[in-house]
Write a structure and sequence with these properties.
There is one protein chain. The chain is 42% helix and 14% strand. It has 16 helices and 14 strands. It has helices at 18-29, 41-48, 59-68, 78-83, 105-117, 134-145, 166-171, 186-193, 205-236, 240-248, 269-282, 288-312, 338-348, 361-364, 401-407, 422-427; strands at 10-14, 33-37, 72-75, 87-90, 122-126, 152-156, 176-180, 200-204, 319-323, 352-356, 372-373, 386-389, 412-415, 431-433. An 8-stranded mixed β-sheet has the order 3-2-1-4-5-6-7-8, sandwiched between helices. Strands 11-10-9-12-13-14 form a 6-stranded parallel β-sheet. The chain is globular, with a radius of gyration of 23 Å. The protein starts with 9 loop residues before the first strand and ends with a strand. The structure holds uridine-5'-diphosphate-glucuronic acid. The site of uridine-5'-diphosphate-glucuronic acid has 21 residues, from helix 9.
């Protein structure tokens, strides 16, 4: 990328999680001076020593290169970050509350901290996923807690990064959404992203916030739609992949996000759906369509567990191998992972599990106990009554299937991600059950 860009605007990112760290490293990569702030001293210490708190393809290299070039630094001091920058991004967690609504206390706390540290004009940009009207609240809060009467602008600039592909998504975005209350910060925001040559949509702040929730909810809806179609395919003998290809070629529909699965998970879709339903409710609209998206998703897991139980009958003391623990491929993230939920359901039925994930085993160990973690994906099947594919890691497609079949006590494979060709699996001697085929 064009690393020769000017360093005229200095950036601080508050919150060094998946979004904050990727955003900070990528802004540095395109030439800006960036400070990443986090209140977690252990995390900042690790980053300062060259370690990585998360696995994200390409990120470690990016961090190393930009730290070495003097464009990227880490601190626990919000005050330092605010003082030394022109544009301050907020990328803190916005976790769900028990009723599905969003806990905005980190957001509010950071807004107050920024207010307390401001001594000159700042642009405060919200990158976290937040309910519509949060920007207005952040603006009010900064105004209230700012001691001197310094000027500032609040901007909503939602992220559309997919975990596992976040660096590429940042550097080659489909669009950049900039939601503003006043026009003053638009030039600076445009300048920040100029090296990416991507379309910039400038809109009002409430629309920008809605774009984020509406976008994630639509993608979740797309997955639930194809998962509902997969049920019809199973009942009628059709093939959901053929149907997805057939409808996906219509550019109005598009083929992406039409892969039937055991359901979507992760730290975004489930949380954002609940939040959006709640936001709609508060705005006086019953978003029943999205409630059904949630129901279809929950049923998809039920159906998959049932498929396993119907085939193996009693799961108590059966050995089952599970490939995949992360909520999707290319990540070590197990938050709201359908694979982990599946493992726990199988454990509840009394099954004994051997599990493997290329990157997520360390994180899985904190939430999934009483299983055997296996380092070699080809050996998970050893002595098992069945093997289950729960995450769409591309390397699982390269399994040594002959060997896997020999290692299994019974050649049964449940594929929750449709990674294999049913005819080929039959030819190899497997009893093969996938989704919607
Ligand atoms: C999602 C969005 O795709 C990003 O645009 C957004 O920025 C991000 O949330 C966020 O709000 O931070 P992410 O949660 O990282 O990104 O992962 P996705 O690739 O969207 O996958 C979500 C889940 O849907 C995974 O469990 C995946 O396995 C599942 N999925 C995805 C399917 O079951 N079928 C598909 O066709 C696609």
């Amino acid at each position: 990328m064009g690393r020769s860009q000017s360093n005229s605007l200095r950036i601080t990112i508050i919150g060094t999680g998946y979004v904050g760290l990727v955003t900070g490293a990528c802004f540095a990569e395109i030439g800006h001076a960036v400070i990443c702030v986090d209140c977690d001293a252990a995390k900042i210490d690790l980053l300062q020593k060259g370690g990585m708190p998360i696995y994200e393809p390409g990120l470690e290299e990016l961090v190393r290169r930009n730290v070495a070039a003097g464009r990227l630094a880490f601190t626990t001091s919000t005050r330092e970050g605010v003082e030394k920058s022109d544009v301050i991004f907020i990328a803190v967690p916005t976790p769900p509350l028990p009723d599905g609504s969003v806990d905005l206390s980190f957001m509010e706390g950071v807004a107050r901290e920024i207010a307390g540290a401001m001594t000159s004009y700042k642009i405060v940009v919200d990158k976290s996923t937040v309910p519509v009207k949060t920007g207005e609240k952040v603006s009010e809060t900064i105004r209230r807690y700012c001691r001197s009467k310094v000027e500032f602008d609040v901007v909503s600039n939602p992220e559309f990064l997919r975990e596992g592909f976040a660096v590429g998504d940042f550097l080659k975005p489909d669009r950049i959404v900039v939601g503003v209350i006043s026009q003053r910060p638009v030039a600076a925001m445009t300048e920040l992203y100029a090296p990416l040559n991507a379309p910039v949509i400038v809109t009002d702040i409430n629309s920008a916030e809605l774009i984020k929730h509406a976008s994630n909810s639509f993608l979740a809806l797309k997955i639930s739609y194809i998962n509902a179609i997969s049920v019809l395919c199973e009942a009628s003998g059709a093939n959901v992949q053929e149907v997805a290809n057939g409808i996906g070629m219509d550019p109005r529909i598009g083929r992406r996000f039409l892969d039937a699965s055991l359901g979507f998970g992760g730290s975004c879709f489930p949380k954002d759906l609940s939040a959006f339903i709640k936001i709609a409710e508060q705005l006086g609209y019953d978003f029943a369509l999205l409630k059904e998206v949630q129901r279809v998703n929950a049923r998809q897991m039920e159906r998959f567990v049932k498929k396993i139980v119907n085939t193996l009958w009693v799961l108590k003391d059966k050995n089952i191998g599970v490939l995949g623990l992360a909520f999707k491929e290319n990540t070590d993230d197990v938050r709201m992972s359908p694979a982990i939920e599946l493992c726990q359901r199988l454990q509840q039925e009394g099954a004994v599990l051997r599990v493997h994930d290329p990157k997520a085993m360390d994180k899985a160990k904190t939430v999934l106990t009483g299983v055997t973690y296996v380092a070699d994906m080809n050996r998970v099947a050893e002595g098992c009554d069945a093997l289950v594919v729960a995450t769409e890691w591309p390397q699982f497609k390269k399994l040594d299937l002959e060997r896997v079949r020999r290692l299994l006590s019974h050649p049964i494979l449940f594929d929750g991600r449709n990674l294999f060709d049913p005819e080929e699996m039959e030819r190899l001697g497997f009893i093969y059950k996938s989704i919607g085929r």
